[in-house]
Amino acid sequence: MARMDVVNLIQAPAFITKDGSEIRELLAYRNSSIRLQSLAEARLPVGCGTQEHRHLKTEEIYYITHGQGRMTIDGESRDVGPGDAIAIPPGKSHQLTNTGAEAMRLLCCCTPPYEHDDTVLKEPDHR
């Protein structure tokens, strides 16, 4: 008989991604029968943001559940908040900053699943 994979958020261990996000991976090949994508919750404390980065292969969808922020993709910025879904195609440089008064929380869907090796950080500008 097949097993059903159900992972509760409070059971998912937190880890820090290469861009500095705190992630709780809910479903991926590492902990379930899912093989081609991953679903995680990310959290950004007040005043914090991810380091600008891009993914070589992975496309992402961010879905904001709590808080307010500023999303930048390839130099275009927009304010985002609860209920906003954001498409991030492979190769597009992106950064999310919490601009609100509470921790920002969002769901991250990645295809293929998130991997540190697929993340390329933007080099700091030393002008």
Written account of the structure:
By secondary structure, this protein is mainly β. It has a domain at 37-121: Jelly Rolls. The protein has strands at residues 14-16, 22-27, 38-44, 53-55, 59-66, 69-73, 76-80, 85-88, 94-98, 104-111, 119-121. The strands form three sheets. A six-stranded antiparallel beta sheet has the order 1-2-3-10-5-8, with no helix packed on it. A three-stranded antiparallel beta sheet has the order 7-6-9, with no helix packed on it. Strand 6 (69-73) and strand 7 (76-80) form a beta hairpin. The mean pLDDT is 92.
Brief rundown of the structure:
This protein has no helices and eleven strands. The chain is an all-beta fold and 127 residues long. The protein has a domain at 37-121: Jelly Rolls (Sandwich), CATH 2.60.120.10.
CATH class of one domain: Mainly Beta
Q: Report the structural category.
A: mainly beta
Percentage of β-strand residues: 35-45%
Low-confidence runs: none
Count of beta strands: 11
